[in-house]
Amino acid sequence: MTISVTQLNNYIHGVFDIDGVLNDISVCGEVTNVKSSRDGWYFSLKDENSAIDCFCYASATQPEVGKMVVAEGKINYWTKSGRVSFFVRRLTVSRNDGAAYLQFLQLKEKLQKEGLFDEVRKRPLPVFCRKIGVVTSATGAVIHDIENVIHRRQPFTDILLYPVKVQGVGADLEIAQGVNYFSSCDVDVVIVGRGGGSNEDLSAFNSECVVRAVAQCKKPVVSAVGHGVDFTLCDFAADKRAVTPTEAGEFVTVDSSAVINAIQQRLLRASNVVEKQLSESKNRTEYSLQRISSVLKLNLHENVAKVKGSIARQNACVQSAWQRENLQMQNVLSRLSAANPANVLKRGYAYVRSEKGRVYSASQVTEGQKLTVTFGDGSAETIVTKVNNET
């Protein structure tokens, strides 16, 4: 008899549905690969030889990686994918943790006591990294993600890859060797990373040799192992932890376009400030000039008024002085005119001269003496016939 895949899956699903053991079963195992979702948690239960995928709702006990638990529920068979999963209704933590998780905790405690995880020993990342060393797989998506983000944000950066296995036997030794190599190389920073995976996949980054290499590296180290929910001891020892390889690339670069934009914005703000200051200075200067001009005009008007007033007063004084002097001069002229011999002669007086000169008195003449008598309109020659002296 030949049947289709769907018929086969439906048949198996029916067998699972009627099987009493599979519909109500308790399974003991170690929790691994926990992933959260909107409805609950996806995880795996494993023992030394096998593992099974599980799901439980958020209302159940939250599964923790490495814990030994007893899961109660039913086995589901998904007809579309032919996949078996364990739907967990109840989760009880066992008294004994998983062996791998215990080893993880013991190593973490040991290294923590040695100070390898202390925040005080962590170094800041360089502001500008020109050479970046990367320890990861040469074929995985991690190196491509790192290269893409670095070349996009900071195109002038050199990326040096030290290719390693990131899981499996010997992976931890290769990773430690890569970190040690870059410790003595001419690089500014080192990125150690891989993509997400199960606890077993990430176990190389919990290895003591890797943690010590990261802690002892002479260059700042960025750990980019797994995704945001994954934590390894390498993360604790590194100077900086990135939740993804892409974020690691962002940590060690500056966005050149953002820097250019920031510079342009600063220049624009500076230009605006200078322009504003120049405008304010111009306004203050113009205002000062207007005030000075107003003051000068006011002072000029006042001074002109003062000068005009002074000139008017001087003119008045000069006029008054001129009138006064003119009056005095007229008086003098009048007196001079009155004292003018010609005018005196015109009033009937005469001017007498002898051969000896002016005659002022009758005592100066004698009878028979010739005299010249000058009148206002002429003169006459006369001879003295008689002298009358009044005593």
UniProtKB/TrEMBL annotation:
GO cellular component terms given for this protein: cytoplasm; exodeoxyribonuclease VII complex
Alphabetized UniProt keyword annotations: Cytoplasm, Exonuclease, Hydrolase, Nuclease
Record field: catalytic activity: Exonucleolytic cleavage in either 5'- to 3'- or 3'- to 5'-direction to yield nucleoside 5'-phosphates
Family matches, as InterPro entries: Exonuc_VII_L, Exonuc_VII_lsu_C, OB-fold_nuc-bd_dom
GO MF: exodeoxyribonuclease VII activity; nucleic acid binding
Pfam families associated with the record: Exonuc_VII_L, tRNA_anti_2
BP-aspect Gene Ontology terms: DNA catabolic process
Top EC group: hydrolase
E.C. no: 3.1.11.6
Record-annotated OB-fold nucleic acid binding domain positions: 3-91
Domain of life of the organism encoding this protein: Bacteria
Transmembrane segments: none
Subcellular location: Cytoplasm
Family, similarity comment: Belongs to the XseA family.
Subunit structure: Heterooligomer composed of large and small subunits.
Its job: Bidirectionally degrades single-stranded DNA into large acid-insoluble oligonucleotides, which are then degraded further into small acid-soluble oligonucleotides.
Protein name as it appears in the record: Exodeoxyribonuclease 7 large subunit
UniProt organism field: Candidatus Fimimonas gallinarum
Lineage, top ranks: Bacteria, Pseudomonadati, Myxococcota, Myxococcia, Myxococcales
